[in-house]
Amino acid sequence: MHFPTLARALSALLLLFYASAAIADELSPPKAGPVELFPEDSLKPGMKGIAWTVFQGSKPEPVPVEIIGISRNMWGPRQDIIVARLTGKAEHTNVAGGMSGSPVYIDGKLVGAISLRLSAFSPDAICGITPIRLMLEVSEFDKTRPADPRTPDNVVTGAAGSSPGTSHTSVDHPAMMTPIATPITMSGFTEEAVRAFAPTFDAMGMPVAQGGVGGALTSTKPAKDWSTALQPGESVAAVLVSGDVTMTGAGTVTYNDGKRILAFGHPMFNLGPVDMPLAKEEIVTTLASSYTPTKMGNLSEIVGALRQDRHSAIEGELGATAQMIPVTMHVKSYDSGDAVRKSKDFHFNVFVNQKWTPYLMSATLFNAISNLNDFSEEATYRLHGQLQIEGAPSVNIATMQAPAGTNIPTPMLLAGWWGDKFNRLFVNSNKIPKLDAVDVTVDLLPERRIAQVESAWIADSKVLPGSEVPVRVFLRPYRGERLERTVNVKIPAGLSRGEHQILFSDSDTLSRVQNIASSLNRIEDVPQTVALLNEERSNDRLYVSLIESQPTIYSDEKVLPSLPASVLNVMGSGRTNNHQFVSAPESAHEQTSVPFGVVVTGSYSLKVFVD
Fold first, then answer.
1. Which parts of 234-364 are beta strand (E)?
2. Tell me: the pLDDT tens digits for 270-303?
């Protein structure tokens, strides 16, 4: 071969080598650190770029992107969305749930995050891209809490509004861009629990699936390798529950400067300032579908904390630890001889939020019960729990739930009761309490243990002030012989002559008016709420009260019995909209209570005459 010919061949080989090296470098997954931003005003239809997302495992793969155009002011003034078409593997999967946040680059410069899809039945993988400019502003201008967060109560009332990430679907608006669904993975949850609690997330446009985890995740502290975690294009999970059971919402990392990450390109719940663990996620597979394509993932390890959940992105801090509530749950199943047949213990941590914590507590309790697989229409559930609160006395609560003839299953009634205690503790106070630990035991009893107050009998209805008289009380159980107890009732020395009543009742009858008064007034500090929770009457006891004809005032946690009419008039004239009270025409002076070991319902009033 002549020298000129050889030289030309070598030159061609060198050009091919450098071109291949440039392509390989361009298709290497992005790394954390400084990145050049692509100027929005330079975007033009037809431009080609590369998006990065995980289809399987933990390594991002390149997805070709073609810019179609820009939708101006789509989310508000100067809040544009870039419209693009995905090709390659995404043509098969379509724009899948979990792709939210997948970074898009043109010429190696960051454009933004894939965050929206066009239509549930579009044959093309058309997506919307949130500009990186909007994502970088996520915590710069607004520190307040958004007025339209996505929370369980807003789903029920329809108050979620129309911000990005709400429950509008592509089926409802086939020509509109809608946020890509954030998949919710529930690991360790039974099929019954998923079926019961998934509708809340479904209403938010967040599909729910059962999944797995790479470890127990009992600790809320970041893993040792947090500094190398969550590279751009990798999958990220926001953690609602971790431990023996987990609940997470997944997306993709858009930006990582070594400490701060941005993801999703739209909100998760739009909660504003937030403190929630962030974890790595491995993708099992990406399910292709023209309707609901989605990624299925397993939680790996916690590596940081989510700090902001806003309109255009979520923002997290690597290496940070989020506060969670440690929960220990003991569930026991008893046989007819009151011996334990089987038992399970659960240890997990729950995300702290005024609206989400009560819901998550309900879901985890219901799941723990259904894990015993001993459901029965006749079963009764007995619960006692302790809530340890920083800077306040512990809350000790107990209840029993038996089938009540409603369409709501008994386990769900118990889960709702449990969640309501946290709702009162979190929502009623202007400061969210710090729960150091929650310990709860649920006993599953094999039969329907419920009894109704039937009647009461006294030997002589004429009584003397200052005396103590025995009264026989009868309760009718669901099955079997009626129950009988003898109760000694004290007649106060100063009780006026004439007719009076002794009330034998369940806890609801005695507490009903006071509960109405409490619901009318917001309690501003944790100690008041703790005091009220600790004073709640148990529903497995019979309460004995002496009734007087003078009125009682119920206001917040205060009970003012036997008030003269003049005092009542003064209180009524001074009442304000910020402080309301409820009055009852009679006053019940609780004398004593008798444990029955069953759910006590109903009431009976016995007349006596004071000489």
1. 235-243, 246-256, 260-263, 272-287, 294-310, 313-318, 324-334, 340-351
2. 999 999 999 999 999 988 876 778 888 888 899 9
